Amino acid sequence: MSEKGLTETVALAAAGDRLSTHHVDITDRAAVEALPAAVVAAHGAVDA
Predict the structure, then answer these.
(1) Residue 34 domain-assigned?
(2) Residues 9, 21 contacting (CB under 8 angstroms)
(3) Cα 24 to Cα 48: distance, rounded to the nearest angstrom
(4) What is the pLDDT of residue 13?
């Protein structure tokens, strides 16, 4: 998804700081493995 698409999604969701977007190149293993930590850093925890 493009940055524009992510921005539009955030606006439509109207979720404030409960929503974060993360652009990740799925061919970059290190970036993919770092994503969960980035989500936890942004939100504190992931609901199960």
Answers:
(1) yes
(2) yes
(3) 22
(4) 92
Whether 17 maps to a domain, the answer reads: no
- Position 2 in a domain: no
pLDDT of residue 43: 87
CA atoms within 13 A on the CB side of 43: 17
Residues 22 and 38: their CA atoms lie apart, in Å, by 8
Residue 36 falls within a domain, yes or no? Answer: yes
Which run of H or of E encompasses 32? helix 29-43
Q: What is the pLDDT along the chain (48 residues), one digit of tens a residue?
A: 788 888 898 899 988 888 888 889 999 999 999 999 999 998 888 776
Domain containing 39 equals 24-48
